[in-house]
Design goal:
The longest helix is centred in the middle third of the chain and has 18 residues. The radius of gyration is 22 Å and the shape is elongated. The protein folds into two domains: about 180 residues, Phosphoglycerate kinase, N-terminal domain (Rossmann fold); about 190 residues, Rossmann fold (3-Layer(aba) Sandwich), CATH 3.40.50. It has 16 helices and 17 strands. The chain has about 400 residues and is α/β, with parallel strands linked by helices. Helices cover about 35% and strands about 15% of the residues. Helix 1 crosses helix 2, helix 9 runs parallel beside helix 15 and helix 12 packs parallel to helix 13.
Length: about 400
């Protein structure tokens, strides 16, 4: 179990710099609220109630992308969750930021500008190197303590995540503490019955190594989404490649074909692949212009369209396996659940988890969002993680540099 300090170890009334992860979708320039805001607001609210003066570091998007925007809207969203005013300064560690920080009083919160707008933030370098950056050296003396609550970014060796714990007292926030404990369970707990892992989503290359690295713990894997189609392709079915308008499959197949085929050969009896897939038919439904959901057995498919969910037979099979499990870990959705027509696979699995007493972790910001979308209760799951890449690394037992520097501090 981890040995880092938590905010329980903080004396009240301090000046605190907290790193959170409120990276969010941006639609037509508008930042969208998501569960990360709610989770981190709980940590911030606890700090404010202890009379801490709280300055907030976070990132949004990457340079060159449409999602690379200011955090001004993020401050407003946090204010809604905290039900109090949250300040914002369009600067991260320059004169404007330092002046705003200097006037911060106990019980007040201030969002600093997007950390990735600082040249010294992004390159992945050793923590000791990041600790010597002007970014860290300028901000650190302004605070009594640093809190890292950004578990979902803990696999990144960026200045705001690994530099500060090298030069000041460092603590884990509530999200960091809860996520690390739950997501590390697959490595630390023993289960009496079958352990099932459900793998889906679009980033197959992140999930393929998981199968090999948790094979001592996981008894069976249920595959869907892009990774499911790629394994079906390796198994000889006419799916798992791009059609016009898609760019998900071919580059991942070219880079990982050998690994996929090896994993299928070595773990085939533990891999459950879809027996049917769902797609959008050309026939419009009666109430809108969208096509109806249609399904086809994978043995009958000659791929000419995109497949957007596992079929009903597969969804039922996966749900039965979940109900028969002592523990279930989910990473990635089985279909395009944002569209109600193609949510059956994802919702069937999540509903089965909610009905059982199994230990469960549902990981990935997008997948966890489906819980509230379809009327499920978060309390029916062991843990709902907002992490993506860090969740995968925790499952495989890989170290997280953001956690390691907290432990060393």
């Amino acid at each position: 179990m981890t040995t880092f300090q938590t905010i329980d170890d903080l004396d009240p009334g301090q000046r605190v710099l907290i790193r959170i992860d409120i990276n969010a979708p941006v639609e037509d320039g508008d930042v969208q609220d998501n569960r990360r805001f709610e989770r981190h607001a709980e940590t911030i609210a606890e700090l404010l109630s202890d009379d801490h003066a709280v300055a907030i570091l976070a990132h949004q998007g990457r340079p060159g992308r449409d999602t690379f925007v200011s955090l001004e809207q993020h401050a407003d969203i946090l204010a809604d969750h905290l039900e109090q005013e949250v300040g914002f300064v369009a600067d991260t560690f320059g004169e404007d930021a330092l002046e705003a920080i200097s006037t911060l009083e106990g019980g007040e919160a201030l969002v600093l500008e997007n950390a990735r707008m600082c040249d010294e933030e992004l390159p992945e370098e050793e923590p000791d190197v990041k600790a010597e950056t002007e970014f860290v050296q300028t901000l650190a003396p302004e605070f009594d303590a640093y809190v890292n609550d950004a578990y979902s970014a803990a696999h990144r060796s960026h200045a705001s995540l690994v530099g500060f714990p090298r030069v000041m007292d460092a603590y884990a926030g509530r999200v960091m503490e809860a996520e690390y404990t739950a997501n590390s369970a697959i490595q630390e707990r023993e289960f009496d019955g079958p352990v099932t892992m459900v793998l889906g989503g679009t980033k197959a290359e992140d999930l393929i190594p998981v199968i090999e690295q948790v094979d001592d713990t996981v008894d069976r894997f249920c595959l869907g989404g892009i990774v499911g189609e790629l394994f079906l392709r390796a198994d000889g079915y006419d799916v798992g490649y791009d059609v016009e308008g898609t760019d998900f499959f071919d580059h991942q197949w070219d880079e990982h074909q050998e690994t996929i085929e090896r994993v299928l050969s070595e773990y085939g009896d533990r891999l459950h692949l879809a027996s049917d897939l769902a797609y959008e038919s050309s026939e419009a439904s009666s109430d809108d212009d969208a096509g109806e959901r249609a399904e086809a057995a994978v043995a009958d498919i000659e791929k000419e369209t995109s497949y957007l969910d596992v079929g009903s037979e597969t969804a039922g099979e996966y749900a039965d396996l979940v109900r028969d499990s002592d523990a279930v870990f989910v990473k990635g959705a089985l279909g395009v659940f944002e569209d109600e027509r193609f949510a059956d696979g994802t919702v069937s699995v999540l509903s089965a988890i909610a009905e059982t007493d199994c230990f469960s972790v549902v990981g990935g910001g997008d997948t966890s969002r489906s819980i509230s979308m379809y009327g499920l209760e978060e309390a029916d799951f062991g843990h709902v993680s907002v992490a993506g890449g860090a969740y995968v690394r925790a499952l495989t037992g890989e170290g997280l540099v953001g956690v390691e520097v907290l432990e060393q501090a």
